């Protein structure tokens, strides 16, 4: 299945990324993200998935190649505008510790000079959307549990209603029960919101749960990119190794086991 | 005559020297804050300047204070009046704790918080004013506190070049071999240092992020 070019939201063309000492992190990556899909970047630590993510919102700049968002090369975008239409959620959450939950969520709308009443309504709406008690709005991040903090992180990323969401192992630091809870809720949320999501994880289960398509990365290269079900059936040795590492009976069609 | 008798007999002069001392410390600390904090911010933005700026401030700190007063004597305008000279020297000494603490405070902000801020589209100025400086404020105030306390002590030496302040009594007492006179300078100076320490310590706690 080739994505329809009209539906391409983000594309990577021969993108490489090297650090200052010349070591390559990414090698000639070609990748397309379709509008409304959740593309999971799966791979072990150091495979280049986080780097790929940070290239999209220009936290990093490619050493070679071109990235297009909405058909326009990143170089033509005003980087601040670009970032404000791309929600960004990271594992460490990174809530502003000196702001209340409310101010954390409201920061971008406030900078964008939304009227106060609209901001207030939006904060309440978002708290509800991510399953948080509106009473928590006045709390500080240190007064929240890990799961609550990441819910706020998601709400903050959604605040200005971005068309894109970049998520870097957002549930990776949570205990298994909380993680399962947040995963379920995010799945529901994504069904409703239909954002274009790029989701980084090293967890195959999570990849299968969220991914419309799954891109497997290894040592800075894209090994394969396939729709979820085809990925499960793939005979690519690395995909097989991944499935074996997780050692479970996934509902593979025609796959081994 | 003990120190308390001396001080009560000369209370007008004690007050005058204390005010001079406060003036020297206050003006120099204020100047150091106005120069040191922007410099500290600057070197977080241009890491290349980090070594020369911190190194320079470090070198100044190693110059013995009397020698520094002497070096500055030939400077135009500054050298013309002892109090200007003293204020310049005290400002230079106070720079290091201010630059270093501003730098350390900003660099000490959780990288995840900075990354999240950048990722959500804060401009460099918004990131600095809304996130980095508020979170670094406690450490910066601690720098002001250290600089002030050092300044109160150092300012006594300014009397050696005729800039006045409580050092007058200390040098006079040394010349007269009279402990009461020395203490009449030392006790108010120590009190001033303690007050600055406690007061700024309180501000530091109030302003530190939760």
Account of the 3D structure:
The complex is a heterodimer of chains A (257) and B (210). Helix content of chain A is 36%, strand content 25%. Chain A has helices spanning 49-56, 79-84, 101-111, 116-129, 146-158, 176-193, 204-210, 228-233, 237-246; strands at residues 8-18, 24-34, 38-43, 64-69, 72-73, 86-90, 164-168, 196-201, 213-218, 221-227. Chain A is globular, with a radius of gyration of 19 Å. Chain A starts with 7 loop residues before the first strand and ends in an 11-residue tail after the last helix. Mean pLDDT of chain A is 91; it is low at 252-257. With 210 residues, chain B is an all-alpha fold. Helices cover 81% and strands 0% of the residues of chain B. The longest helix of chain B is centred in the first third of the chain and has 35 residues, at 11-45. Chain B is elongated, with a radius of gyration of 20 Å. The relative contact order of chain B is 0.16.
Question: What's the arrangement of secondary structure elements?
Answer:
The complex is a heterodimer of chains A (257) and B (210).
Chain A: E1 8-18, E2 24-34, E3 38-43, H1 49-56, E4 64-69, E5 72-73, H2 79-84, E6 86-90, H3 101-111, H4 116-129, H5 146-158, E7 164-168, H6 176-193, E8 196-201, H7 204-210, E9 213-218, E10 221-227, H8 228-233, H9 237-246
Parallel strand pairs in A: 3-8, 3-9, 6-7, 7-8
Antiparallel strand pairs in A: 1-2, 1-4, 4-5, 9-10
Helix pairs in contact in A: 3-4, 3-5, 4-5
Chain B: H1 3-9, H2 11-45, H3 47-62, H4 65-72, H5 82-107, H6 111-119, H7 124-154, H8 167-176, H9 179-207
């Amino acid at each position: 299945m080739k994505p329809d070019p009209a539906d391409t939201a983000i594309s990577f063309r021969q993108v490489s990324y090297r650090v200052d000492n010349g070591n390559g992190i990414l090698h000639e990556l070609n990748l397309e993200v379709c509008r409304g899909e959740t593309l999971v970047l799966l791979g072990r630590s150091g495979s280049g998935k986080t780097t790929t993510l940070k290239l999209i919102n220009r936290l990093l700049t490619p050493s070679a190649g071109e990235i297009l968002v909405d058909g326009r090369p990143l170089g033509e975008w005003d980087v601040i505008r670009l970032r404000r239409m791309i929600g960004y959620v990271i594992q460490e959450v990174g809530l502003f510790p000196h702001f209340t939950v409310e101010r954390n969520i409201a920061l971008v709308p406030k900078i964008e000079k939304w009227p106060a009443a609209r901001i207030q309504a939006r904060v309440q709406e978002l708290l509800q959307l991510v399953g948080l008690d509106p009473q928590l709005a006045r709390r500080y991040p240190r007064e929240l549990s890990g799961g609550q903090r990441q819910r706020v992180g998601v709400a903050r990323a959604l605040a200005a209603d971005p068309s894109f969401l970049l998520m870097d192992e957002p549930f990776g630091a949570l205990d298994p029960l909380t993680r399962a809870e947040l995963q379920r809720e995010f799945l529901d949320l994504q069904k409703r919101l239909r954002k274009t999501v790029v989701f980084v994880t090293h967890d195959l289960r999570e990849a299968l749960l969220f991914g419309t398509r799954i891109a497997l990365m290894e040592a800075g290269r894209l090994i394969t990119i396939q729709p979820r079900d085809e990925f499960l059936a793939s005979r690519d040795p690395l995909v097989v190794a991944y499935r074996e590492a997780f050692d479970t009976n996934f509902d593979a069609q025609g796959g081994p086991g | 005559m003990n120190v308390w008798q001396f001080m009560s007999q000369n209370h007008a002069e004690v007050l005058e020297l204390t005010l001079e001392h406060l003036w020297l410390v206050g003006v120099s600390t204020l100047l150091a804050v106005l120069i040191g904090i922007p410099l500290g911010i600057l070197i977080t933005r241009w890491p290349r300047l980090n070594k020369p700026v911190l190194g320079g401030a470090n070198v100044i700190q190693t110059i013995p204070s009397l020698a520094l007063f002497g070096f500055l004597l030939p400077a135009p305008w500054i050298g013309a009046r002892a109090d200007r000279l003293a204020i310049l020297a005290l400002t230079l000494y106070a720079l290091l704790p201010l630059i270093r603490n501003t730098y350390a405070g900003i660099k000490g902000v959780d990288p995840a918080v900075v990354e999240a801020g950048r990722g959500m589209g804060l401009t460099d100025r918004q990131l600095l004013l809304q996130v980095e400086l508020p979170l670094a404020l406690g450490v910066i105030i601690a720098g002001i506190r250290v600089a002030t306390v050092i300044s109160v002590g150092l300012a006594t030496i300014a009397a050696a070049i005729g800039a006045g302040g409580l050092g007058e009594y200390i040098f006079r007492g040394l010349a007269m071999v009279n402990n009461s006179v020395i203490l009449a300078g030392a006790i108010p100076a120590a009190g001033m240092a303690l007050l600055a320490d406690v007061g700024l310590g309180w501000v530091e706690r109030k302003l530190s992020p939760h």
